[in-house]
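User: Design a sequence. Structure:
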């Protein structure tokens, strides 16, 4: 029987104790901890902890403990309860010392990876609202097309669209919070972007449009506001700081947003939309092959969340993101590969039990249990699963070249869970059919590739894998 309290206590103990944890959050499958001293984390024991599927970011202040869907919610709540009881809210929210951060392993491992992780941390807390509102938007679209419940559809449309209409405010709030500013000031500056009155503002001879720049503009505006706020707080005495710091922050960052950032972010957002359309229309099959084949390594490294701003930008512009259905093929390849392992290693009862328990989550697009519990420990099946994802991505991308685009109205779910969110330039029915064909292709190729190439020669169907069989792909 699962004991989430014991799991939370063990995780805290193995990450250096409650006093070493500075911040706690989670996504769909991972407990995300910010630790003061990365050296205090016992990575080996943490990985061996029952219920832990994997550990990402060991040796850095940003630690991710993969627990799987459902489990992560209750374990995170228990970790937060124990921290509140043992440390106190002030110490929990205390940021990492800047001098320590400057020499931390995160910085030594590369500023780009660190930046991507921090941007991901801005958007991860927004995913539940994106999922909920996206599913409601899909249901509302089906009801509207069918002509059912006409009295309810306007209400559903308002509920589903309200968050997306104001998402820039939430992005600004989260950005300032993540980068050490006052969250409400980040939200206040970002709110300028969606204020209807910006239509009266003209710079460089071009009038602004409400929402121009979207989440990218909000991210930039809140980052600038955070820098200005920190500069002011380091130079103004206490009495003036209370009045002038918020005023100067909002004024300077707000003017910079109106007369610069909204234009620049709008240009970048337009380029993203144009680039995505060109990529799929011109090289759809090849683009799908690359995106579907390489997405699992991004998930393994925890960097896939950094794509959220691109998805959100496409949804703001076109009503759907054409990238998510392609990337979702990676999880389908993983399912096919896991089924091949289940068939091939018939007498490895432990591994087969892991596959049986992780397969439902995999079918719904949650790949971490299969990644860390099955394919990655075996090595070769991880590579062949990527081959399956590449085939599924190429299938969906091929139809994009023919003019049939498949998109998702929200982000978060994939696998079978993505069906309610599917639409495209020809409507939801063709999009659903193409996406289903992509899933079947990825299942089949992932299964066949793993069965043919996923095991060292001589591995019998009736024998459990030896220690050699479970070595990583690069050493097999």
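Assistant: Done.
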């Amino acid at each position: 029987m699962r004991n989430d309290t014991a799991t939370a206590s063990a995780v805290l103990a193995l990450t250096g104790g409650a006093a070493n944890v500075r911040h706690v959050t989670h996504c769909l499958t991972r407990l995300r901890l910010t630790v003061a001293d990365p050296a205090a984390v016992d990575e080996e024991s943490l990985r061996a902890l029952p219920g832990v599927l994997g550990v990402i970011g060991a040796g850095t202040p940003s630690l991710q403990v993969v627990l799987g869907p459902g489990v992560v919610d209750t374990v995170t709540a228990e970790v937060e309860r124990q921290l509140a009881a043992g440390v106190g809210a002030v110490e929990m929210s205390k940021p990492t010392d800047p001098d320590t951060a400057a020499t931390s392993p995160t910085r030594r491992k590369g500023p780009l990876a660190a930046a991507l992780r921090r941007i991901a941390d801005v958007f991860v807390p927004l995913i539940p609202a994106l999922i909920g509102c996206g599913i409601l938007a899909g249901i509302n679209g089906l009801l509207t097309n069918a002509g059912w419940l006409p009295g309810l559809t306007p209400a559903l449309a308002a509920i589903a669209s309200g968050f997306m209409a104001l998402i820039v405010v939430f992005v600004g709030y989260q950005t300032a919070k993540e980068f050490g500013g006052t969250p409400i000031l980040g939200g206040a500056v970002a709110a300028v972007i969606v204020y209807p009155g910006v239509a009266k503002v003209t710079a460089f001879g071009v009038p602004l449009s409400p929402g121009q720049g979207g989440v990218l503009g909000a991210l930039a505006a809140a980052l600038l506001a955070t820098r200005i706020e920190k500069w002011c707080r380091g130079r103004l005495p206490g009495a003036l700081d209370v009045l002038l710091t918020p005023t100067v922050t909002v004024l300077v960052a707000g003017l910079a947003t109106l007369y610069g950032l909204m234009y620049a972010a709008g240009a970048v957002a337009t380029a993203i939309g144009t680039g995505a359309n060109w990529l799929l229309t011109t090289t759809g099959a090849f683009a799908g092959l690359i995106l579907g084949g390489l997405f699992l390594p991004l998930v393994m490294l925890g960097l896939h969340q950094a794509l959220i701003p691109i998805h959100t930008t496409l949804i703001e512009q076109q009503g759907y993101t054409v990238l998510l259905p392609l990337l979702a093929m990676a999880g389908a390849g993983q399912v096919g590969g896991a089924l091949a392992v289940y068939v091939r290693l018939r007498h490895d009862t432990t591994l087969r039990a892991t596959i049986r328990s992780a397969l439902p989550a995999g079918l719904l697009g949650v790949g971490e249990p299969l990644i860390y519990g099955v394919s990655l420990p075996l090595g070769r099946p991880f590579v062949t699963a990527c081959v399956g994802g590449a085939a599924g991505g190429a299938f969906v991308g091929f139809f994009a070249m023919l003019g049939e685009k498949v998109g998702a109205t929200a982000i978060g779910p994939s696998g079978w869970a993505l069906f309610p969110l599917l639409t495209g330039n020809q409507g939801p029915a063709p999009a659903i059919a193409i996406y289903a064909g992509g899933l079947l292709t990825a299942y089949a190729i992932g299964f066949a590739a793993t069965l043919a190439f996923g095991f060292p020669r001589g591995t019998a169907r009736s024998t459990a894998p030896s220690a050699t069989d479970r070595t990583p792909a690069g050493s097999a």
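Residues 238-301 form the longest helix (64 residues). The beta strands are 21-26, 30-35, 54-56, 62-66, 202-203, 206-207, 407-408, 422-423.
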